[in-house]
Amino acid sequence: MVVLNKIYTKTGDAGETALGNGARVAKHSMRVNAYGTVDETNATVGLARQHASGDMDAMLGMIQNDLFDLGADLCRPDMEKDKDAEYAPLRMTDTQVARLESEIDVMNADLEPLRSFILPGGSALAAQMHLCRTVSRRAERLSVELATTESVNPAAVKYLNRLSDWFFVAGRVVNNGGKDDVLWVPGANR
């Protein structure tokens, strides 16, 4: 259970923050950048939800919860020490990845194949989905970079990879099933 009585602690005033295992690291560390960008992704999803309703809003709500799980996963290094932890750290699972894949398949089933790249836009919600896609892709790049030097849960990286695909397909769905997609015209303004 999380209890937040006091919001500011002054413990970060010197440019450090605590990870999930209590270790102190620089706020600019690769790990903090990775989970901070996951948090930024979550904020963009919150903006998208302002335009969503029904099943789309429900799926976005599940993604927001997953992103908190993902942040908790990334802020806890040393996966090999999980068995020695006082409590089992929260880790992303392949089940969460599979759910995204299933949702992508369902959403994509009724879309016409693309014959051109699309530009972010169309409806307000589609534009927000593309913002979510690009920020989640940055979170993925940072997590992959982190994994070159530190322990990272492979399911966390897979989730981020599928998530950006999810946002792309969802952007097409909310753009009138792709009918209102804005197509890229190569060299149109030469």
Automatic annotation (TrEMBL):
Residues 7-174 form the Cobalamin adenosyltransferase-like domain. InterPro entries: CblAdoTrfase-like, CblAdoTrfase-like_sf, PduO-typ. Pfam families: Cob_adeno_trans (PF01923). GO terms for biological process: cobalamin biosynthetic process. The keyword Nucleotide-binding applies. The keyword Transit peptide does not apply. It is found in: Cytoplasm. GO terms for cellular component: cytoplasm. GO terms for molecular function: ATP binding; corrinoid adenosyltransferase activity. It catalyses: 2 cob(II)alamin + reduced [electron-transfer flavoprotein] + 2 ATP = 2 adenosylcob(III)alamin + 2 triphosphate + oxidized [electron-transfer flavoprotein] + 3 H(+); 2 cob(II)yrinate a,c diamide + reduced [electron-transfer flavoprotein] + 2 ATP = 2 adenosylcob(III)yrinate a,c-diamide + 2 triphosphate + oxidized [electron-transfer flavoprotein] + 3 H(+). Its EC number is 2.5.1.17. Pathway: Cofactor biosynthesis; adenosylcobalamin biosynthesis; adenosylcobalamin from cob(II)yrinate a,c-diamide: step 2/7. Keywords: ATP-binding, Cobalamin biosynthesis, Cytoplasm, Nucleotide-binding, Transferase. NCBIfam families: PduO_Nterm (TIGR00636). Belongs to the Cob(I)alamin adenosyltransferase family. This is Corrinoid adenosyltransferase.
